[in-house]
Amino acid sequence: MVATPSSIVKSPLVIKWEKLPDDLPLEEEPVENEGQPLLAGALRESLELVGFIQPEMLIASNFGLCATVNDTIAIKAPDWLYVADVQKYETIRDRRSYTPTLEGATPTVVMEFLSHSDGGEYSVKRTCPLGKWFFYEQILHVPVYVIFEPVTGVLEVYYLQGDRYELAQPNAEGHFWIEAMKLYLGVWQGHKEQRDGYWLRWWDELGNILPWAVEIVAQERQIAEQERLRAEQANERAEKLANYLRSQGINPDELP
């Protein structure tokens, strides 16, 4: 009898949260294009500027998330991740990777930015090397999985419902609510850091976009320019009044 996919019994997975050996080499694969670090950095920047980031949080990009599955170490490095609460890292060295449960909470959000080559973002492969989708959904149980296509601006947000990811629907503005962060995530088109195209941006509960530093500086310059123009206009009005008083034989400098 030939086994069909529905009749195949899947062996249970044994998942452990173990400390990685200090000398374990972590693969250092280069990012696939220069836009990926810009996108990741822009997401962090706006959070930092509004004071969202706290010492107990972990926000990183291209950073290894680890688990031991059936006695084999599995590591995936999403393009962006957010963990709400991690244990303090008791060493002067930078954190090389993160193992949930052992070192703190499960990541709340992981993001993958698509490129010209298939990175396994949709892969449900359950044998090593594990597919990214399978790893985030079935091993780590990450509540929010984001897949973004920077070239076309297509944004997919998946919420973990039970033990499966379900495609979320955006609001009227095309934004997705991230409950754990109390923020909306959406797509914005424009220019930053010599890159024109689609970006991922944050919006607050009231629909206000979280600004980047260059936008704050531009806004402050605009306010300063408006104040300068108001001051000039006030000086012009005062000078006209003074000239009028002089025409009437009144010295404005001698007024009480």
Characterise this structure.
The chain folds into 2 domains: 196 residues, Alpha-Beta Complex (tt1808, chain A), CATH 3.90.1570; 37 residues. By secondary structure, the chain is of the alpha+beta class. The chain starts with 14 loop residues before the first strand and ends in a 9-residue tail after the last helix. A 6-stranded mixed β-sheet has the order 2-5-7-8-9-10. Strands 1, 3, 4 and 6 form a 4-stranded mixed β-sheet that branches. It is elongated. Helix content is 23%, strand content 26%.
Q: Could you tell me how far the N terminus lies from the C terminus, measured between alpha carbons in angstroms?
A: 110 Å
> What's the count of strands?
13
Major sheet strand order: 2-5-7-8-9-10
Low-pLDDT regions: 1-9
Main structural class: alpha+beta
**Integer count of domains:** 2
CATH level 1 class label of the largest domain: Alpha Beta
Tally of separate helices: 3
Q: How does the overall form come out from the CA principal axes?
A: elongated
SSE topology string: EHEEEEEEHEEEEEEH
Kindly state the mean pLDDT as a whole number? 87
Summarize this, please?
This protein has 256 residues and is of the alpha+beta class.
Q: What topology does this entry show?
A:
Blueprint: E1 15-16, H1 35-49, E2 58-60, E3 64-69, E4 72-76, E5 80-83, E6 97-98, E7 109-113, H2 132-140, E8 144-149, E9 154-161, E10 164-167, E11 176-178, E12 183-192, E13 195-203, H3 213-247
